[in-house]
Amino acid sequence: MFSMKKTIGCLVTTVGLSMFTTGAYAHCGETALAGNMNDLKTDLKSLSFDLRSDDAAAAGERVDDIIAVLREARGQTPYLFKEKGLKGDELEKRLTQFQSVIDETIDVFVAVDAAIAEGNMSEAKTLLREAGNMRKKGHRSFKADC
């Protein structure tokens, strides 16, 4: 049987750990960039469905939404940069790299939009896979472990 002292100790440890993990991970979801990325995740799933359904009108609208969110995200600073305390030239260098990946991703979605407008859904699907690779590249380079 546990003593009252051990029970309170376990309770304090449990509450402390839950506060630590909640505090450690809450910051990532509270940024504008995290909100942008969640919007993109939802839009990408919908775009994939639209392309599989050959719904060019919905897919075209979805791509426009994705490009708008990417343009907004381009002006954000990844939390990882804040977490690492980047400043000055190093921050500027990493922001330029981040913006370059966003720009490349926008270019892919402009090409997806063009393929949809031409009725070439097969090409749009291929380009969407390329966009998925860009997402992986961006996450490996700029996403904090949250």
Automatic annotation (TrEMBL):
One Pfam family it belongs to: Cytochrom_B562
- The protein's superkingdom reads Bacteria
In its UniProt record, a GO molecular function of this protein is: iron ion binding
Key words of the record? Signal
What is one GO biological process annotated to this record?
electron transport chain
Stored Gene3D superfamilies: Cytochrome c/b562
Q: Name one GO cellular component term.
A: periplasmic space
What are the boundaries of the signal sequence? Answer: 1-26
Question: Which family does this protein fall into?
Answer: Belongs to the cytochrome b562 family.
Q: Which protein are we looking at?
A: Cytochrome b562
